[in-house]
Amino acid sequence: MPCLNLSTNVCLEGVDTSPIFSEATKVIAKIIGRPESYVMILLKGSVPISFEGTQEPAAFGELISIGGLNSEVNKKLRGAIGDILQSKLSIPKTRFFLKMYDTKAIRFSSNL
């Protein structure tokens, strides 16, 4: 289940975030090769962020996936998510940082 956690210093009050969620869900599912129903997106606005010494519009993201990540996929994801942030929130691609984690599934026993 890929999960994208995005934080930005852009105020999202009054912003229609639906296109961000739908486009990010589609692009992550397509690039990683998972169904859209597996993708989770979290979006937080008005987060105090300083990047390159300024508080101009910027964003930080963490993407966690159980498998499916590699250097080629990561590059595509960075570009696609950067495009979304630039077109929907006017955050330049140069002011966006995306950290990615490929993790393993953990099975829990009901006999704890």
From TrEMBL:
Pfam families in the cross-refs: MIF
Molecular function via GO: phenylpyruvate tautomerase activity
One CC-aspect GO term: extracellular space
InterPro entries cross-referenced by the UniProt entry: Macrophage_inhib_fac, Tautomerase/MIF_sf
Similarity-based family: Belongs to the MIF family.
Name of the protein: Macrophage migration inhibitory factor
